[in-house]
Amino acid sequence: MTLALPVLLIVFLSLAASNFLAAQNLTNVTGQITALLIVTLGQMLVALVAGIDLSVGSVMSLAGCLIATQADPFTGTVLALLMGLCVGLVNGLGIAIAGIHPLIMTLATMTFLQGLAYLVLPIPGGQVAPALGQLVNGTAAGVPLPLLWCAACMLAVYVLLHRSRLGLHIFAVGAQARSAHLNGVQSRTVVVAAYVLCSLLAVVAGIYLTARVSAGDPTMGAAFGLESVAAVALGGVQLTGGVGSILGVVIGALSLGLITNGINLFGISPFLRGAVTGLLLLLAVCSQRRKVVGL
Question: Residue 255 domain-assigned?
Answer without folding.
Answer: no
